[in-house]
């Protein structure tokens, strides 16, 4: 996935080689932490939200985490310090994508197959827990129609309520969806899945999600649902596909929201790239 998604800052760092714990060098980790700090100040689209809405003291957070890193005794300890510090901000879109360890690298170099979906960051843990199964009288539907959108029915008086679960507005929360697509736009070996390959897989995922959401709605209508409950409990957002989902669900013409971004070379380059792709897509 590209780094330029407006609602997400996905940080990739170079993990130092894992040693035996003796004479552990914390300097590379502190360097990575400084890189994360610089990246957030330049590219983090939710920076103002974190400071003014969440009232997070980012300077204090980074200083405290750096102090802990100086006392870290292992790579796993350093990773945990960084992950814990970023989680404390409370933004589900902000995370570090850690590189594969030596075992994964050896598998790739030896030609052995790797899990392309996991390597590209597809993780079911990005989805929140569904609320529907906890509602009295909830009857789940089969996953044959759209596995990424669990659904069910609830009888409420004279009404039959259809429930659709959307755990994340992006394909990255659905590794099962990625698995079903990996044989088409992306090769099975992650060592040959470059940026274009990952983008192709992501775009295919969006197409399937739009199709499957519409199929779920039609299924609930066919089963007699007269009202619809969309469960987004714990949904951390994801991407602009949220607009596509809203349009599928609503008979009313919906206007896109205004877009904002952080000023800087990173976002200028991103929007120039998007404009170029759109111009090329218009060509016959």
Describe the structure.
There is one protein chain. The strands form two sheets. The chain has a four-stranded mixed beta sheet, with helices on one face. The protein has a two-stranded parallel sheet with strand order 1-2. It is of the alpha/beta class. The protein is built from ten helices and six strands; from the N terminus they run βααααβααβββααβαα. The N terminus is likely disordered. It has two domains: 105 residues, Histone Acetyltransferase, Chain A (Up-down Bundle), CATH 1.20.920.70; 130 residues, no CATH class. The chain is globular, with a radius of gyration of 21 Å. The longest helix is centred in the C-terminal third of the chain and has 28 residues. Helix 1 runs antiparallel to helix 3, helix 3 packs antiparallel against helix 4 and helix 8 packs parallel to helix 9.
């Amino acid at each position: 996935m590209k780094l330029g998604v407006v609602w997400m800052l996905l940080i990739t760092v170079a993990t130092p080689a894992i040693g035996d714990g003796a004479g552990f060098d914390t300097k590379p980790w502190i360097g990575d932490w400084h890189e994360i700090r610089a990246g957030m100040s330049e590219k983090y689209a939710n920076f103002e939200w974190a400071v003014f809405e969440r009232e997070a003291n980012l300077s204090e957070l980074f200083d405290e985490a750096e102090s802990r890193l100086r006392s870290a005794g292992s790579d796993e300890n350093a990773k945990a310090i960084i992950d814990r510090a970023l989680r404390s901000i409370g933004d589900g879109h902000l995370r570090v994508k850690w590189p594969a360890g030596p075992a994964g690298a050896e598998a790739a170099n030896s030609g052995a197959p790797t899990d392309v979906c996991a390597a590209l960051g597809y993780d079911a843990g990005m989805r929140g827990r569904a609320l529907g199964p906890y509602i009295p009288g909830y009857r789940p539907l089969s996953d044959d129609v759209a596995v990424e959108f669990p659904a069910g029915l609830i009888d409420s008086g004279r009404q039959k309520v259809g429930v659709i679960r959307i755990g994340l507005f992006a394909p990255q929360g659905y590794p099962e969806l990625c698995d079903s697509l990996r044989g088409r736009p992306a090769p099975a070996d992650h060592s040959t899945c470059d940026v274009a390959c990952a983008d192709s897989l992501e775009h295919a995922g969006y197409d399937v999600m739009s199709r499957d959401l519409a199929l779920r709605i039609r299924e609930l209508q066919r089963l007699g649902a007269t009202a619809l409950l969309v469960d987004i409990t714990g949904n951390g957002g994801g991407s602009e596909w949220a607009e596509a989902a809203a349009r599928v669900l609503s008979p009313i013409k919906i206007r896109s929201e205004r877009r904002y971004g952080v000023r800087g070379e990173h976002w200028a380059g991103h929007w120039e790239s998007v404009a170029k792709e759109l111009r090329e897509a218009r060509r016959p």
